[in-house]
Amino acid sequence: MSGFEEVGIAGSDDLREALTNCTNPVEAIQSFQAENGILLPSLHYALPLLDLHGINRLEFHQSIMEELGEKLISRLQELASSDDKDRYKKIEDLLAKSFPLISISSVQPVVMAMMKHLPEVPEKYLNTLVEKKDLYEAAATEVKRQIWQENSSLFGDEVSPLLAEYISGKEKSLFGYEPGNSQMFFVIPPKTRRQGHVIQTLTSMVGKNVKLYDRVLQFLRTLFLRTRNVHYCTLRAELLMSLHDLEVHEITSLDPCHRFTWCLDACIREKFVDEKRALELQIFLDGIRRGQETVLGDLSMILCDPYAIHTLANSTIRTMFSSIQSETIPRGSQNLLLLMRMLTLGVKAWNMIDSQVFKEPKVEQDLILKFLPCLMSLIVDDQTRSFNKKLNETETDPNLKLLPDVIKKTTKKDRVAATVCLYYVQYIARQKNRDALMRILPYLILFDGGCAYQDTFLHAFVAKIIPMVDEFGSEDFSTTVFDKFLMKKKNHENVSRHVMRLLTYTHHKLPQTKLEKIMKDLEPLPKSGQITKDMYAALEEKISSYNPSPVDQPEPLDSPLLSVPTPAPL
Fold this sequence. Notes:
By secondary structure, this protein is mostly helical. It has helices at about 10-20, 25-35, 45-50, 55-80, 85-100, 110-115, 125-130, 135-140, 140-150, 150-175, 185, 190-195, 195-205, 210-225, 230-245, 250, 260-270, 275-285, 295-305, 305-325, 335-345, 350-355, 365-390, 405-415, 415-430, 435-440, 455-465, 475-485, 495-505, 510-520, 530-545.
């Protein structure tokens, strides 16, 4: 049945019965048209005119249905937004009369519009949508929210492809590089990132529904726990701030992390945690009371976001430079202590969620009393060496080429110390401090948990070291970068892809034997991903087709002055 019979309109079954029992089929069809057509007297004279113009009845009736449908949807919108106290009752009564026709394509948009404007669609209608996939897909997001609220598996099916798309997009951007935009993963402003397809779609799906928002957060916690992928932490913060941008107070007012995330987002936008915002963040952390400790789980995820870590670690380096200039020890800087506190919370996010022990981890005393002063001393040494080199003065102390034991031991066992040290490596790479890089790079392989080989660090490191392209012609420098650091993890596919990014811009400077060895080591295995194979093939093509720019030869001079003898010395 098409649904016409249920609402008292003659349908295909009635027409079949009329044709079966009639003696004159033409008269039966004409009679059926007269009884069930548009009951408008003036139309009786217009239809023959339309026939003369070659407009068939089906086309005419379809145009009428479309026009009526648009007017009905417009009237529904007006009714739903009016002050009529019975507006929802009227819409529901209309829905009851028209729902049997929902499978008819010309009527379906009107029925869907009725459900869209109802704050609570009766369960029997929602069940019908769930049972019929085509109807479910045609339903408005407002209607689907009501289905998802009671059907978590269906909501998960909708969200999972979006999360996979988000992670895939982040991973692709980590392997990109464009001259003039050397750190494109981190330079995109937070508000621009939130305009992405996945964030906007998730925000639309959640709407003002607190239950769905909580469910998305639970998905993100679970996936972060299973995969350790920090991009889920980014998504957790971006979703909250997207709802903040839309002023969805129904959710933001209930999320205990909102004000903290809002303040941290401003720091990420400005790429620095200043004293004023540091105080706001500290007040929030100090304000977590007994019984509210579970909020630390979400806070740690927000601080584990690579963009947050990037901002906190860079702020740490800048604060250390300020302390050096003001001759202040680390424990005397409240801003530095807070940065260490937040970095510790972010770096240890996975451990907290895994153990379900929601207690703020203490900052190691050795980190403040030994590591940071030693790193500040290293910074002074590196700056002094760089300054002396500009003055053409040579080093006399051989120990200046060695990394202090405190830094080696602390970064080996403490992820926070390792993270701060990695961002110092980025700093000296940006400064093109060759000697400082050669001193520290061989030790990065020992850093806690292999954090020096994470994509977020390698992306920024490679982007910053590419401008040092001329240094790769030096055997000792290229050996330090490749043999003593990057190629130590050549079997890790992500590392090999970053190495290929670096070679794309530096291959022409490397000694030929070293380039050939590196390319042989990077050759993809049969089990390697297609992206890796494509990158390797593109790199091979670039190397083979490289044609160095010819050296300009001076034009021969044909001048009579050249025949004049050189004057004798006085």
